[in-house]
Amino acid sequence: MSAVPEVNVRSGVEERDPATVCQEVPNPSTRMTGAQMVIEALKAEGVEVVFGYPGGAVLPLYDALYDSGLRHILTRHEAGAAHAADGYARATGRVGVCIATSGPGATNLVTGIANAYMDSVPVVAFTGQVALPLLGRDSFQEVDITGITLPITKHNFIVKDLQRLPRTIKEAFYIARTGRPGPVLIDIPKDITQTEGYYRYPKEVSLRGYRPIFEGSIEAVEQAAEEIVRARRPVLFIGGGVTISNTWNSIREIVELTGIPVVSSLMGLGNFPGDDPLFLGMVGMHGTYAANMAVSECDLLLGIGVRFDDRVTGKIDEFAPNAKIIHFDIDPAEIGKNVRVDVPVVGDLRWSLSALLECLKDDDFVACDHRRGRGRLDEWQETVTRWKTERPLTYRQSDPDAECSIKPQYVIEEIYRVTDGNAVVVTDVGQHQMWAAQYYTHKRPRSFITSGGLGTMGYGLPAAIGAQVGRPGEVVFLVSGDGSLLMNCQELVTASEQRLPVKIAVFNNMYLGMVRQWQEFFFGKRYSHSCLNGSADYVKLAEALGCNGLRVTKARDVRAGLERAMSLNGPVVIDFRICPEENVLPMVPAGGSLAKMMGCFPEG
Fold this sequence. Notes:
Layout: E1 21-24, E2 31-33, H1 34-44, E3 49-52, H2 59-65, E4 71-74, H3 78-92, E5 96-100, H4 104-107, H5 110-118, E6 123-129, H6 145-148, E7 155-158, H7 165-177, E8 184-189, H8 190-194, E9 196-198, E10 202-206, H9 218-230, E11 234-238, H10 240-245, H11 248-258, E12 262-264, E13 279-282, H12 289-297, E14 300-304, H13 310-313, E15 324-329, E16 343-346, H14 349-361, H15 363-371, H16 378-390, H17 408-418, E17 424-427, H18 431-439, E18 448-449, H19 460-470, E19 476-481, H20 482-485, H21 491-497, E20 503-508, H22 513-522, H23 538-544, E21 548-552, H24 558-567, E22 572-577
Parallel strand pairs: 3-4, 3-5, 5-6, 6-8, 7-8, 11-12, 11-14, 12-13, 14-15, 15-16, 17-18, 17-19, 19-20, 20-22, 21-22
Antiparallel strand pairs: 1-10, 2-9
Helix pairs in contact: 1-2, 1-7, 3-5, 3-19, 9-14, 11-14, 12-16, 17-18, 17-24
């Protein structure tokens, strides 16, 4: 490969590489405090909104925020700030920013930072720290947050020199948004924010130990094109990297040129129209029959911006057993990490997919394609269409007048219809997440926001707040569960205070649904501590926290409840009393073969 591998920068040490080059904005007469420097740096980076929660170690920063002109969203827990910044980043493609104080404030960000790290989300987190003379003395609200977050950040910093603060912020944003994105943390001692110095903000930075890959090996791209021409049963497998790189139009053009069927990971949903005849659905543990069978029977699998994680592959030895695998990814560490790869294409997808399209349009490749027969995929397309038609996602309808037996799949379908398929759908984690992935027809990029790699319950509500802040003119619909919502329900106050019109569908089955499902299938229906009989009254909870609350108990009232929620201003919580023991199907048991799915209808 001609490309230089990207180095994973994970140092919590304050000292900087002497080869770091900064081109600074010459303005030696500007004198300000460290806190004011942070504000000016955020403005220089184009930041318009930050999410946070004040405390002692960040009071100077909050004082500077007071009349800064920046919008600050006061969440009701630091975890909410981290998840909101994450949701904002995913919905907009911009860097999300959050702030927390030292000690417990900083540690409350940890799950949100880990969540962003697993899903490659650009977030910059600012944490306060005790003053420099108090470091290392077990001072009040002191924790080593750079040490704690070392494994879950793309990079982190502790700033011990005021004059390094502007450059550090520039580097943090550069690292967070370039290459494979990820969270970066900046820990700032309180006395640094109070001290005055000269503010010089770099125009750009160059880090010797950090060289994000853009262009890779054109020979690898050409080899990939040759394999596409040879294949008789190819499948295009798209993931979150397509979202990150904004290359969904390239994916659509490749499919138009080649006629290759498409499957998606959970994180890739929306990057190819869900209603296109060549889209087979999500692949993996809760993937569609057509998607899983296509991967199992294909002779070429093109992975585009995917990790090939265990929820997708199932049993590695039986994953795409007859296929050559081509893997396009910006991160060389992902190539061959989980599955064997025959053709690795390392590089930014904006470069590699553009180069692939040039190859596929080249006269030599077109002539080769013609000689092999342009209708060579007809039989394969007919096969996957038959799988899609004969074994669609389906469920058994409930009695429309029965109490507390609403089918959750039906609710998702009705949300799609009420929103005309144009909502930004955010989810928590559990059964409802999978139903939202399966039954909402995702047609737009950056419009399905969910916790993928970490699977974080409690993510949904603050992430929906962040998404609504980032896309104020759009309908944001949160699909949550009675277990997940309570983990960060305090953020209903944030939504109410900010007058954010987030619509929240609570799938209330009085269980930790996915836990209960696994206990049913694999633990003899021994429902050990997964029953939520003492569950909250979500209508009263919503009203107590300043939101509208609705309850729907019968299937025939689902549409009316959704329309009522859409007509109300501000945040609305809808308590849907769903069938208590409904399961997410199909399902591939953990470590099982994708070709051996449970619960495909019609039964066979």
